[in-house]
Amino acid sequence: MYWRLCIWAVALILLGSREAACHSMSESVSVVLHQTNITRLTAKVIHAAGYHLHRVEHLSIMDAPKLDHIVVDDLTKMPNLKSLFITQAPRLHRVSPLPPLPELRTFIITTSGLVEVPNLSHVHDKKNNNSLAYLQAIDLEGNHIKRLSPHALRVRADQVSLNYNLLEEVPAFAFKNAQISKLSFRGNTKLKHIDENAFASNLLLRQLDLSNTAITSLPTAGLQNLETLRIEKTPSLKYIPSIYEFQSLQKAYLTHHFHCCAFHFPERHNPTRHKLYETQIAIMQSKCASASQQKKPVARRKKRSLAPLKIVMPQRKNDTTDSLEEDLSTATTSEEYDANLMDEYFSDSGSWEDEDDQGEFHEPVNNTLGAGFAIISAECGNFSISPRKVECFPAPDALNPCEDVMGWSWLRASVWFVITAAVVGNVAVLLVLLTNHTEITVPRFLMCHLAFSDLCTGLYLFMLAVVDLRSYGEFFNYAYDWQYGVGCKIAGFLSVFSGQLSVITLTIVTLERWFAITYAIYLERRISLSAAAKIMMGGWLYSFLMAGLPLVGVSDYSSTSICLPVESKDVGDAVYQGSIFIVSALAWVTIVVCYVQIYRSLGGGESYGGRGAAAAAERRIANKMALLIGTDLLCWAPVAFFGITALAGVPLVDVSHGKVLLVFFYPLNACANPFLYAILTKQYRRDLITLIARTGHCTWLVEKYKLAATPPPTAHTNPSAPAQLMPLVDSVTYQRSQSQCKDSSEVPL
User: Transmembrane residues, as ranges (predicted)?
Assistant: First the structure.
């Protein structure tokens, strides 16, 4: 009896240990090899680490500096393997094509040395596995991948990430027969070319990320079902395809504001495609109308709503209207793609997320397709169209609205008057002053600099006006070439340079007048020509510096269509813009103070006998200068006020209204200066007649001016004989010598 009990006890113990062993055999195991020195990943290595191969579901290799080879055939010895994770393996350059792994769901090799994408096309072969099997995540981020092997990613996958590699191009049919929902190329800064058929034959792509790349164009083949498009921080992309190329697009995260304008105004972005769309709508209306007429008796008995019809636009691009009818004949209406099929093999795998995407790109797959171009609902003959709206970022804002360069028609017309006056007036001043052979004086020297700076302002406006005419009605199609091209940089440079040089020159002119009028009897207290040249050399250097800083990254001329550095992104931009306003403000304060002193010094001139006439002449000069400076101040003050408020973070006007100040009012001084300074003065007229007399043309005008300039006959002249006319140059020289006796402040006014 005792032995029988012992036998039963041993049997029970053996049976319990066997059941425990079987239970332990069924438990899954996660293998983690951290900071390992293995050179080859084999089944033997895993087994030597104390793991049973049939129990391994998750295999992780982290920080393996010597790993350079994976024996992929040994992976088949782990039939329950669901995830393979390898990171920080710099010597792992290539992985052989993976064999069928029925349970594999996650394949991740990051921050390693891969130079090409492993071939994963046989992981879920149909003959070895369920046809609906798929990979939740393929992550090859942070490697050195330079090329995509043909058919390497012919897989079913929820998410595929090739972020931050060295890809230079995506070849044609790189994803042929693949079914990938989310695809990301973020951070491939060398990626410049994507073939037109790169995404062709992949009908399930829902989200695409091409941010921070160097692509210049975006193909549309294979993007029919795309719902989310990300092309952020990619300034090289010039042109965004028409919204009619994306039948299901719902959200777009782009780089430039004007690309979103293309989605908001498709009729101006691509008129040919828009016309094709409208024609298709008209055909559908006609078909629905004829159908309602045929079913009219039935409709009286019972109302019946037709199923929604989705317009499927032909994918071919038509450059001429001759092929329009041919495309329409091939276009057909179809029901929406049965996206519910995705539920059979795409799960909500939201655990794999990119930090830069902030969880946006790797959200669970959205299986609801967009509404296409329009949903046409026909009920009892009533026809309605619900256009599709796309959420686009960055949306047009105050600095980059969806409008032309000039914005308003009246501004487009009036700016040409400003340009004409500025260019013609300043060219005329420079022509007369530079060709006159008389002695160069300080006022004449300063006038040349002022005329040149104002001429640059006229050239800036001319460049804007020409671009506005060329891109009228569809500026966002030309915005990239203009704002990021050489033309906008030249225009912005001219604007800032001319504005700063003009302010400095006017300040020096005012100081020179203050010295000349306040200290009229002290000839040594004058600004000499050499001193004026040195001061103006400093003004030129300062103007060049302030105009050149945006070219090297301090602020930016490309932030707006009018090419002015008005956008403040960081502290450096704010300091730059603040410096311009402060220097300009100090210059204008100096001008105002000097003219107050000038008026005070001339106030008692008439009470000093012989100085009364001189004081009256000086007062007239001061009044003319005050008119000139007052005009400039009225033009500058509104711009300064609204600019300071914008710099303080509380802008009171947007760029659309600011253009009236920056393009119209502010340049008014450029066209007013040559007239107030020179053209309307007697001195300029004398210089002009001298120039005309030297050419030998318009003799009648020269004789008329000589006659007007001849002094009346006196007792010392012969009344019966015509008076001896003094040569024009001598007369001018004589007048100047006489004026120097009573007033040494000669001004070309």
Answer: 410-434, 446-467, 501-523, 535-554, 574-596, 626-648, 660-680
The two three-digit tokens of residue 455, written as one number: 């001429």
HSE-up of 643 (CA within 13 Å, CB side)? 22
Q: Which has the closest alpha carbon to 519: 433, 609, 594?
A: 594
Considering the entire predicted model, what is its pTM?
0.70
Q: What is the pLDDT of residue 295?
A: 58
Specify if 111 maps to a domain.
Answer: yes
* Structural domain for 613, as ranges: 409-681
pLDDT for res 711? 52
Of the three residues 218, 250, 283, the one that is the final residue of a domain is 218
User: Which of 218, 235, 250 lies at the terminal end of a domain, its last residue?
Assistant: 218
Strand-pair category, 391-393 with 29-34: unpaired
| Total residues found in the chain within this entry | 749
Q: What is the arithmetic mean of pLDDT over 278-298? A: 71
Q: CA-CA distance, 39 to 42, in Å (whole number)?
A: 10
Tell me the angle at which helices 699-709 and 728-742 cross, rounded to the nearest 10 degrees. Answer: 40
Are 143 and 113 in contact, with CB atoms under 8 Å apart?
yes
- Residue 502, C-beta contacts closer than 8 angstroms, at least 6 positions apart: 450, 453, 454, 457, 669, 670, 673
* 164 within 8 A of 188, measured Cβ to Cβ: yes
Asked if residue 191 is part of any domain, the answer here is yes
Better-predicted residue by pLDDT, 369 or 60: 60
For residues 192 and 88, give the distance between their C-alpha atoms in angstroms, rounded to a whole number: 27
- Return the bridge partners of 61, or none: 33, 86
Nearest one of 527, 529, 532 to 516, comparing CA atoms: 527
Q: Closest Cα partner for 358 from 230, 514, 190, 466? A: 230
- DSSP 8-class letter at 72: G
Closest CA to 196 of 169, 221, 229: 221
What are the backbone angles phi and psi of residue 103, rounded to the nearest 5°? -95, 0
Specify the number of domains making up the chain: 2
Residue 450 tokens read as: 């002022």
Give the residue from 149, 88, 87 showing the smallest Cα distance to 120.
149
Note whether residue 509 is domain-resident: yes
Q: Show the CA angle centred on residue 618, arms to residues 616 and 622, nearest 5°.
A: 115
DSSP state of 116: B
- Residue 333, strand partner residues: 311
Residue range 60-76, pLDDT digits in tens: 999 999 999 999 999 99
CATH number for the domain that contains residue 154? 3.80.10.10
Band of the pLDDT at 717, cuts 50, 70, 90? very low
pLDDT band for 329, please (50, 70, 90 cuts).
Answer: very low
- Ranges of beta strands (E only) in 338-425 are 374-379, 382-387, 391-393
Confirm whether 276 is domain-assigned. Answer: no
Exposure string of 30-62, with b = 16+ CB inside 10 Å and e = fewer, is ebebeebebeebbbebbeeeebebebbbbbebe
Contacts of 410-418 with C-beta under 8 Å, sequence gap 24+, read: 411/659, 411/660, 411/663, 411/664, 412/465, 412/468, 414/664, 415/461, 415/464, 415/465, 415/663, 415/664, 416/465, 418/458, 418/461, 418/664, 418/667, 418/668, 418/670, 418/671
* DSSP secondary structure code for residue 139 in this structure: E
Closest CA relative to residue 726, chosen from 706, 712, 708: 706
Q: Whose structure tokens read 């921080």?
A: 233
CA 43 vs. chain centroid, Å, equals 54
* E strands in 249-354: 251-253, 309-311, 333-334
CA atoms within 13 A on the CB side of 136: 16
Question: Residue 445 carries which DSSP code?
Answer: H
pLDDT at 368: 37
Q: Per-residue confidence at 131, pLDDT binned at 50, 70, 90?
A: low
Tell me the pLDDT tens digit for each residue of 542-566: 999 999 999 998 888 988 888 888 7
160 near 153, Cβ under 8 Å? yes
